[in-house]
What does this fold into?
Amino acid sequence: VAKEHSTEGDSHSVETSNKLAQIEEKIKNIIRLAEEF
It folds into this structure.
């Protein structure tokens, strides 16, 4: 992972990481529901 454009890309990387975290939570919830059935 290149961190050369830190000043320009910090906010964008934070947004993407937050979106990835939300997606991971959704996937975990789906897996839990799938395991219940």
About this structure: The mean pLDDT is 84. Residues 6-36 form the longest helix (31 residues). The radius of gyration is 15 Å.
